[in-house]
Amino acid sequence: MAFQRKHSESMVPAAGPRLPIADIRRQVVGLRCRVPVLSGALRRYVFLDNAASTPTLKPVLEQVDRFMDWYASVHRGAGFKSLLATRVFDETREILLRFLGGDPSLDTVIYCLNTTEAINKLAYRYPMKPGDVVITTQMEHHSNVLPWRAVAHVVPAPVDDRGALQLTEMGRLINHYRGRLRLVAVTGAANVTGYLNPIHHIARLAHEADAEILVDAAQMAPHRSLDMKPHGDPEHLDYVAVSAHKMYAPFGTGALVGHAKLFDQGIPLSVGGGTVSFVTDHSVQWAAPPDKEEAGTPNVVGAVAMAAAIRVLESVGMDEVARHEAHLTRYALERLKKIKEVELYGDIDLETVEQRVGVIAFNVRGMHHALVAAILSVEGGVGVRNGCFCAHPYIKRILRCNDESAARYGRQIADGYRAELPGAVRLSFGIYSNEEDVNRFLTALRMIVRKRWKGEYTIDEGTGEFRCKGFEPSPGEFFSF
Ligand SMILES: Cc1ncc(COP(=O)(O)O)c(C=O)c1O
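Above: query sequence and pyridoxal-5'-phosphate SMILES. Below: predicted holo structure tokens.
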């Protein structure tokens, strides 16, 4: 059944009472976990890798728990629980669509595993002809580049030395490829530098050239309000992809939202049960979207979790989320800028932190990014990420790595040698991160730049990761079956 209902016919009540952001930490699952560090102590874990994935929230767990009493097969069951579960599943689509400002009468919500699968699905179904062009940017995550390379000629719009999109150049490319250009596929927020792109302006440029726009909202949706705007508005966003695990609902769901009509024609990427309305020995009649695109039994629990997480975000208010994360970014940047050994990437202007999400990439001069990340974890109990963040062209650009070195790294990887690969360290905030988290990180970082770490670290040349001699904590003591 297509998800096509007018806003006024909504069956889902609006979000609950306001939840002050100051109270959100009490709602986060796992914040009290203590982890082993080199000194032998257990320390409260500070998680600063929210751009990769977020913890979940108590209201999400509670909602999932409540729903589990009623869990049953959806769509094909005749029993009461199946009817209820089907209705709940449809409600989750409505909650997501409303969160993104989509139009229930024209847009569909197709559940996927994550943003990567959502973009692959769209790329597979997008009606490309040979020679058709997709414009992306140099700052894209691989998930918003590789699916397009498989079906079109991909042209990345350049970024400047600080990693910001060169909008004028993008406009020039859009004009240049007019006629062949089908889609502009752009990230809402960059996962390395946190830059927010002017997605509505880009939508206008794309539409003026008779093309459409996809916004990869994996990094944007958890941190900023997103409004697809009405169909027909030049600034309308045609397609949006999101991952629930970056939105406090890590239960295996993501979604592609956009024009239902695109999916009316053609054959889905995955076919089988649930995608059809009638099958004979030799023919098939496809169901309407979104069912047509969701082969097999869907992840209803994941959808319930995502909807519950959206409810929490709405209760806090996305403006409040943005304000809180901008404050933390400013707080961290202000202090990081004073550490002369630290090289920061992206825009480090404290006046413009509102124009980025809470993601900060840096290196300690003269130190391997993986060593910094290892010491932060082993001696500080602080979890960050390091490497190239699935954005190799972007890292190459902002680290000013030339083609010759890039080719050398490529050969090294092919030979199983990763010890010299360039990269950066990234910290990224969530709705619940606070100054104390940043302070713990900064204390560990200052210890590192003063070369006062205690462990003896060696690199594993095959993985490019550092190990600390004698530090072999046993995860099984903390969780096992
Ligand atoms: C901007 C961006 N796009 C896409 C993805 C892929 O998300 P997922 O791994 O949930 O598919 C990520 C993941 O970090 C991302 O940051």
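The first helix runs from residue 58 to 68.
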